[in-house]
Amino acid sequence: MVVVLESGATPGQVDHIIRVLHDYGFDVHQSTGVQHTVLGAIGVHPEFDHRQIELLPGVSEVVRITEPFKLASRAFKREGSVVDVGGVPIGGEAVVIMAGPCSVESEEQIDTIAARVAASGARILRGGAFKPRTSPYAFQGLGEDGLRMLRTAADAHGLKVITEVMDKSQIDLVERYADVLQVGARNMQNYTFLKDLGRISKPVMLKRGLAATIEEWLMASEYILAGGNQHVILCERGIRTFETATRNTMDIGAIPVVKKKSHLPVVADPSHGIGIRDKVIPMARAAVAAGADGLMVEVHHDPDHAKSDGAQSIYPDQFDQMMQEVRLIAQAIGRRLA
Ligand code: PEP
Ligand code: MN
């Protein structure tokens, strides 16, 4: 249930409304918007009559949220959320581009790629130091050495850092090096881990699970939000379908669907979404046209020798071309590149 407050509600009235909701057994989350302050009252109380709240001084409207996700919903927060990633806002007018290799492999590798993507206009450097590989025998990432290399390269080229965190034991470490923590597709349903991420204050980018519906994905984001971390970004990265011609099926349609259902920013990852180098740019263009607030793209200067995902990594020159194209598309829909 969402309680929309009158614009003139006094702090005393707001406190009273919150106290009454607590007395009924609800958890209360407050969201102060430009036009309205709203209270999200979370909890299932079949006997409860919402008119009890409607009558309280300072209440303008009580809206029952029928969808299972509450804090992530547009009903709870009407304006789109803008998540601050080390000074780079995601979710505003500007479309933010994150780029870099699948994995951090060496100092020279990450620095070479960082220099190229920064020169083309990327704002955030990606690169995995902890890699969720399908095979336990495949390259697992450089760990803390990789994080250090990633941070150094990003700082040298004026970029922010996004990198994956795979479990609770890595959170403190990854937080020291990253501006935004990535939760991989395979971890989207690791609910205890999502609760852990709800307790931190750094932004989290939650990738959609390989077989997750949009509702399941939003419910996963709800775990982080309910824990108290409001800095959540969603990332569409393709889903498993019956189609085998591409690695995954990039669900472009999910972007406008989620933008309507939720206030959270949505980033698209066309690299994992399609999984084949020559089709990454068309998917990137489509995602921006569909309303994505950002892109995350795998770029490698020597993809034939990449330790992971070389076949879906684009060359720096291709990335530069992509940037020119998505810049035009962003302008065509009243946005711009950050
Ligand atoms: C990645 O971004 O390198 C990655 C492993 O992504 P996903 O979790 O979407 O497979
Ligand atoms: Mn990858």
Low-confidence stretches: none
CATH topology of the largest domain: TIM Barrel
Largest sheet: number of strands, sense, barrel closure: 8 strands, parallel, barrel
Summing up helix and strand content along with how strands pair, one would put the structural category as: alpha/beta
Major sheet strand order: 7-8-9-10-11-12-13-14
Run of helices and strands? EHEEHEEEEHEHEHEHEHEHEHHEHE
Q: Can you give the helix content as a percent range? A: 25-40%
End-to-end gap: 36 Å
**Number of helices in the DSSP assignment:** 11
Global shape: elongated
CATH architecture of the largest domain: Alpha-Beta Barrel
Identify the CATH class of the largest domain. Alpha Beta
Radius of gyration: 21 Å
Q: Which small compounds were modeled alongside the protein?
A: phosphoenolpyruvate, manganese (II) ion
In total, how many beta strands? 15
